[in-house]
Amino acid sequence: MTLILNGCILLLKEHQLLKQADIVFDNEITAVTYDSRTVQKDGMFFCKGTNFKEEYLVQAQKNGATTYVSEIAYPNIKGMNALIVNDVQKAMALLGAAFYDYPQNKLFVIAFTGTKGKTTSAYFTRGILQNYSNKKTALFSTIDRIVGPKPEQRFKSDLTTPESLDLFRDMRTAVDNGMTHLVMEVSSQAYKRNRVYGLHYDVGFFLNISPDHIGPNEHPDFADYLHCKLQLLVNSKYCVINADTACFEEVYQAAKATTAADNIYLFAKKGKNTDNVDFVYSSQEATLADSEFSIIAQTVKAQALNVAGLYQLSLIGDFNESNATAAVIGAGLAGAPYELAKTSLANVRIPGRMETLKTQDHGTIYVDYAHNYASMQALLSFLKKNNPDKKIIVVVGSPGNKGVSRRADFAKVLSEYADFAYLTTDDPGFEDPAAICAEIDERIDHQKVAVQTILDRFQAIAVAIKQSNPDDLVILAGKGRDNYQKVAGEDQPYPDDFNVAKQIVLDLED
Ligand SMILES: CC(=O)N[C@H]1[C@@H](OP(=O)(O)OP(=O)(O)OC[C@H]2O[C@@H](n3ccc(=O)[nH]c3=O)[C@H](O)[C@@H]2O)O[C@H](CO)[C@@H](O)[C@@H]1O[C@H](C)C(=O)N[C@@H](C)C(=O)N[C@H](CCC(=O)O)C(=O)O
Ligand SMILES: Nc1ncnc2c1ncn2[C@@H]1O[C@H](COP(=O)(O)OP(=O)(O)OP(=O)(O)O)[C@@H](O)[C@H]1O
């Protein structure tokens, strides 16, 4: 992979990003990076970030960088080409795509945004497309990035949507590994930080929106959060929208701004406002671990996708039927027909999303990543509605140094639905986990919910399971399959909630 300096200048000018170009020598660029520690010979180095220091550029030059791209010039740096731009993140995304030779053009790209359900929908979609594409579907999700068919081509993600250079590099790797399809999650932060600037998708999904990610390092307010999420639709050839979402009118208008109505698909749950939607899904039957739902195609264009029919899921929750409906439509737009979607979907399981453990004498255990009001409400209200006579026991904590409003939110949602709450530790960071639990506890309605605080998460889960009866529902919320606790700047190893529960159940049933 290479870049020609003149080509870079043209591209930046085309997007009105170039303020100044100081060219010392003309050479071919054979590597790109934003980290001085990974610079290679004849590399291009991007100076970006709130914590950026000039010494990184000095190190980059020492390590072989010949060109830097930055929003400000560094006059002390001699003997390097300088491309001074008015937005380094946008410049990086454009030059990154060019450097990796536009790998997105070789992939059918399906992208999901939404406050909740991105990972689940992405996994469902990939589950179907893997069978449709002969195992050639890449996945960029919050949990992992899969760039090829071999186990070593799957690795853990650090961000939901990676930095642009990493994104285009991984797309290139996926193409070189023979992948033909890509399913990816796009966070609002990815748009805020221009990680996906210039990227177009074959299909873009808007799943839902509720207040989240608003704070000092993320979005200043809800309007900014929504605006960032809407960008996905503006950059998609086909748009698929959950018509039950909050702010539907704004969302639909954003799609219509750049997409013909024929290429916009709407779906909604039966019983809501389904008059003008293409697909309606409806719950048929749910056990404690599986659910059955149907998708009806209401319009000619929906029928043409050939995906309507009855479906089964190996995880429950009406919200997961919504996520699965989205996946079926996405896979349908890629060409996957009903029968294939049906058989593929039935087998998809997602790490830490409604994973179920059935015990002999201690109820049904759910491990779920629900970690804010919207997701906890969706989860607990579903369980309550379908099991009005069963006791709901929740093990939950709230993280330190972020999302402080979640503490009051958890108190509210527990008061609404839970019978028993075990408050415990969840990534306390630099805060005292006991104080965090106390903040939740003081807002819980103790007339409705019995509360016990057990700071050791393993012990909290053990006590919750041991004290439950065969008919009870025990929900281990918030951490999904996280195998660490973030404590005072360190990731301390933790077996993960599912493994902890499995161990406790094994010990009990020995
Ligand atoms: C607020 C935010 O998005 N920050 C991201 C951003 O940081 P930054 O650009 O400010 O970089 P920085 O940490 O100040 O570092 C400065 C620069 O110096 C470079 N450096 C550093 C040390 C050195 O020796 N040499 C060197 O060159 C670094 O490579 C970096 O480019 O770029 C970094 C990668 O270069 C990200 O790791 C970092 O994500 C932080 C950790 C983060 O937590 N982000 C969250 C908010 C996020 O993006 N979340 C969304 C999901 C939430 C949602 O749904 O919106 C996500 O997509 O994951
Ligand atoms: N469509 C939905 N509506 C409301 N809640 C949902 C929905 N889908 C999933 N959830 C809940 O949210 C949790 C997180 O789901 P998922 O990981 O799919 O979402 P996400 O958008 O990737 O989330 P995040 O941005 O927090 O990583 C699930 O464990 C579940 O409790």
Automatic annotation (TrEMBL):
Residues 113-329 form the Mur ligase central domain. It comes from the Bacteria. SUPFAM superfamilies: MurD-like peptide ligases, catalytic domain, MurD-like peptide ligases, peptide-binding domain, MurE/MurF N-terminal domain. Carboxylation is probably crucial for Mg(2+) binding and, consequently, for the gamma-phosphate positioning of ATP. It comes from Bombilactobacillus thymidiniphilus. This is UDP-N-acetylmuramyl-tripeptide synthetase. Coiled coil: none annotated. It is an enzyme of class 6 (ligase). Residues 352-480 form the Mur ligase C-terminal domain. One of its GO terms (molecular function) is UDP-N-acetylmuramoylalanyl-D-glutamate-2,6-diaminopimelate ligase activity. Its EC number is 6.3.2.-. UDP-N-acetyl-alpha-D-muramoyl-L-alanyl-D-glutamate binds at S36, T160, T161, S187, R195. Its cofactor is Mg(2+). The modification N6-carboxylysine is found at K229.
